[in-house]
Design a protein that fits this description.
alpha+beta, elongated
Length: 82
C-alpha cells in the first residue's frame, strides 16, 4: 500500500517576526519511505494565516502582535524610494 503524508515539520521565527514554515511530503510504501520532498514558505507580519496548520496559526497569533506588525510595515515603508 502506498500512502502520501503531508505535515508541517518545522516552524521558525526569524527577523521582523517572519514565520518560516517547512512542509514535508512523504510517500511511504509498505512502511518504507520511498520519497520525501520539502516546501518552505514565509508568513510576514500582517499576512493572512487563517488557512495555515493550527500550530502555525498559534505561533503567528503569538508573534504577530500589533507592535510587531506596525514595526514591520514601517520598515517596509522606509525601504521604498521616494
Amino acid at each position: 500500500m502506498i500512502e502520501k503524508k503531508v505535515s508541517v515539520d518545522k516552524i521558525e521565527v526569524v527577523d521582523f517576526g517572519h514565520v518560516q514554515v517547512r512542509t514535508a511530503t512523504t510517500v511511504v510504501e509498505d512502511g518504507n519511505v520511498i520519497a520525501k520532498n520539502y516546501h518552505r514558505h514565509v508568513i510576514a507580519p500582517g499576512d493572512d494565516y487563517s488557512a495555515e496548520d493550527a500550530k502555525v496559526q498559534a505561533i503567528c497569533s503569538t508573534v504577530h502582535t500589533p507592535e510587531v506588525i506596525a514595526a514591520y510595515i514601517l520598515a517596509q515603508e522606509q525601504q521604498i524610494p521616494a
